[in-house]
């Protein structure tokens, strides 16, 4: 056959025109900086138009050339599985549940870096100049199995997928039903710029101690629990799934952060931007959304019906079986397993919140709020199933808002008490109601729990310890102390004890966010640990506008869950962001957490409150004593005396803030000494929203004329 056959059309109905040899092809793999050494020695496979298979390795600069191949295009793949010694990748490829088909190419791509800070593609790769053809490719373009890999990012020089499809239809290329590989054209030198396989993940401190970093980061994660998972199709997927809905849990972790996109929206109605502090990590160290591939994983096969597993069923809990309407999500990476539980969202949630009857906590000691306990039991097996598959010693970080915080507490303690599991748990809750009695709280003393409360949020004050759980009325006695002196004191004292049983109690170390208005009108804020009940109850009095009345139960519930200081995006997240920014300033300036002006204002308010409690105690003592017996039980006096003492302790704690100097660990926790912290902060401060400092996030300037002057304020003046 003459060489003119090479000029004939390459394809007919079934095969190439003629299997002549004599063509050549060369190619080079480079990163976005034009460097190919990161891919040196990488094994590759070529399939030509005659069905021949060629195997080889790239040289030290990522280059290879083949000569005297059959005429026509070739298909290039890099499908050799990883066999290195890195323990993370060895675990991921060998784990019993969803082992990942990680290739050597994926490992190499995870250890290259972007040319631009935001990961966007560039057009000026220095390696493209000597090339005949230049393509921007991703790992998923060059391997067979792609379900565990991120979606394709925007690019301008993409490989020609239509040529790959044509070859596949003719029976050439990789012998797989899915299209895999990149087509290289003969007698051309092709440069393939491989996109770095990097991801973003929210930075979390793994230390027990409270940090401003976790305060802010977990407030965003807790708010995300209100979103749907966002999987399409949501049930009974057949071949693949995706997550187009934004915001949603699946979209955030599987499609934005996995592609190094800085997501900020965690509420469909959110307007103000709150960016988490993201650390850029190799893709396999991201928070994982498990792959869906019925060819690789039998548990993904559609014929399993209700027993079929898919990402939504593995990561997202939305209770329908027991009707509790509990919702939560779980994900993990090599250092952290993250669980977030949703707060009050529906009428079913409100009914559960209202059911304050106590039941035994079967997984530990003491009693728990029946509604919260039912929700915990509904999701317990879901969490245990995930942990049994993917817990390899990571820190288990749990967070929740409102009702979700109460359920999260029961979940955390239930997990902590499982024999032989040794779950190392860290719990942050926001605006959580009381979930259990004093015996439970005492038994859970070893559980690390940071409980965040906004000053005017009423929800943490329920269920009240004195609450009559069967009556039609709830009498919020604690919140009437300062407006209805005669009955209020009795009810407040009763709120700290429980006649006939153990009282409801809060668990954990309270962090109280207290906004302040200074005398000149300047807004400010203090985050501190007051250690007493009356400060929170006074805030409730203001938030619910109670003036001695005993509201109907349903009206009280409506007030509770419509209070603006209870919402995440409207209140807790801005407060957490303001605290982080203020602590960053205090760290940089080596100044105190509380200025003299703020200290004097809050201290005066605390002294006013303490005096009110003393007055109430004297009023109770002056009551007539018929038949030699007091109208007021002795434990009411004891409760008031204990709260007066706690207020004294609160004042001492406040005073200590004037002299405290922050360390980096107070702000950033375990990330304080990380070599990647500065890069994380640079990315965060690149957003204008994080560089601006509203007054509530700023350290107030000193006002010499006001130094040393206590302002005559009571607790209701703090807003």
Q: Which structural traits does this protein have?
A:
16% strand, disordered N terminus, 31% helix, disordered C terminus, 719 residues, alpha/beta, 2 domains, 4-stranded mixed sheet, 19 helices, 22 strands, 8-stranded mixed sheet
Give your account of this protein's structure.
It is a single chain. The chain has 719 residues and is α/β, with parallel strands linked by helices. The protein has 2 domains: 19-195, no CATH class; 316-623 and 632-706, no CATH class. Helices cover 31% and strands 16% of the residues. It has an 8-stranded mixed sheet, sandwiched between helices. Strands 4-1-8-6 form a 4-stranded mixed sheet, with no helix packed on it. Helix 9 links the parallel strand 16 and strand 17 (424-430). The N and C termini lie far apart (92 Å).
């Amino acid at each position: 056959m003459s060489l003119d056959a090479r000029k004939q059309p390459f394809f007919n109905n079934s095969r190439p025109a003629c299997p002549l040899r004599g063509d050549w092809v060369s190619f080079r793999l480079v990163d976005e900086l034009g460097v190919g050494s990161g891919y040196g020695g990488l094994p590759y496979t070529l399939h030509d138009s005659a069905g021949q298979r060629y195997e080889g390795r790239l040289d030290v600069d990522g280059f290879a050339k083949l000569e005297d191949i059959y005429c026509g295009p070739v298909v290039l793949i890099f499908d050799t599985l990883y066999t290195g010694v890195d323990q993370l990748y060895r675990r991921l490829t060998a784990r019993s549940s969803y082992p990942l088909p990680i290739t050597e190419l994926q490992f190499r791509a995870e250890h290259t870096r972007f040319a631009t800070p935001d990961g966007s593609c560039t057009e000026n790769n220095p390696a493209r100049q000597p090339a005949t053809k230049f393509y921007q490719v991703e790992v998923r373009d060059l391997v067979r199995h792609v379900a565990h890999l991120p979606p394709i990012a925007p690019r301008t020089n993409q490989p020609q997928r239509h040529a790959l499809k044509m070859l596949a239809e003719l029976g050439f290329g990789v012998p797989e039903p899915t299209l895999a590989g990149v087509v290289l054209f003969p007698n051309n030198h092709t440069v393939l710029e491989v996109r770095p396989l990097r991801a973003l993940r929210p930075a979390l401190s793994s230390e027990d101690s409270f940090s401003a970093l976790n305060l802010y980061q977990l407030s965003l994660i807790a708010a995300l629990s209100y979103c749907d998972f966002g999987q399409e199709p949501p049930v009974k997927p057949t071949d693949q799934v995706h997550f187009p809905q934004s915001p949603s849990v699946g979209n955030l972790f599987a499609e934005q952060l996995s592609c190094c996109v800085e997501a900020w929206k965690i509420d469909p109605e959110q307007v103000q931007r709150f960016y988490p502090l993201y650390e850029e990590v190799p893709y396999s160290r991201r928070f994982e959304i498990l792959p869906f591939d019925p060819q690789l994983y039998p548990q993904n096969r559609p014929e399993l019906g209700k027993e079929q597993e898919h990402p939504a069923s593995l990561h997202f809990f939305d209770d329908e079986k027991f009707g509790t309407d509990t919702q939560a999500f779980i994900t993990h990476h090599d250092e952290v397993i993250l669980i977030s539980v949703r707060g009050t969202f529906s009428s079913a949630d409100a009914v559960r919140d209202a059911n304050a009857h106590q039941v035994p906590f079967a997984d530990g000691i003491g009693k728990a709020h029946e509604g919260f306990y039912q929700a915990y039991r509904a999701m317990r097996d879901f969490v245990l199933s995930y942990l049994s598959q993917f817990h390899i010693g990571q820190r288990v970080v749990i967070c929740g808002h409102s009702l979700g915080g109460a359920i999260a507490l029961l979940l955390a303690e239930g997990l902590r008490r499982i024999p032989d599991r040794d779950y190392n748990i860290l719990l942050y809750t926001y605006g959580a109601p009381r979930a259990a009695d004093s015996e439970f709280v005492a038994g859970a003393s070893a559980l690390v729990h940071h409980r965040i409360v906004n000053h005017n949020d009423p929800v943490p004050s329920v269920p009240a310890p004195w609450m009559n759980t069967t009556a039609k009325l709830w009498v919020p006695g604690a919140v009437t102390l300062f407006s209805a002196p005669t009955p209020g004191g009795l009810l407040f004292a009763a709120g700290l004890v429980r006649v006939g049983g153990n009282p409801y109690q809060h668990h954990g170390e309270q962090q109280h966010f207290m906004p302040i208005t200074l005398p000149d009108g300047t807004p400010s804020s203090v985050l501190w640990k007051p250690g007493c009940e009356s400060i929170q109850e006074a805030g409730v009095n203001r938030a619910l506008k109670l003036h001695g009345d005993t509201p109907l139960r349903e009206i009280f519930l409506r007030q509770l869950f419509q209070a603006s200081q209870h919402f995440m995006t409207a209140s807790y997240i801005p407060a957490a962001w303001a605290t982080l920014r203020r602590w960053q300033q205090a760290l940089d300036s080596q100044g105190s957490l509380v200025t003299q002006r703020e200290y004097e204002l809050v201290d005066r308010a605390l002294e006013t409150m303490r005096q009110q409690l003393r007055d109430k105690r004297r009023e109770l003592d002056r009551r007539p004593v018929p038949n030699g017996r007091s109208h007021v039980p002795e434990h009411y006096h004891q409760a008031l005396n204990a709260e007066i003492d706690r207020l004294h302790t609160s004042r001492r704690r406040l005073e200590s803030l004037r002299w405290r100097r922050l360390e980096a660990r107070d702000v950033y926790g375990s990330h304080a000494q990380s070599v990647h912290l500065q890069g994380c902060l640079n990315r965060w401060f690149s957003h204008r929203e994080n560089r601006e400092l509203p007054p509530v996030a700023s350290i107030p300037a000193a006002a010499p004329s006001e130094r040393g002057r206590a302002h005559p304020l009571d607790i209701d003046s703090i807003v």
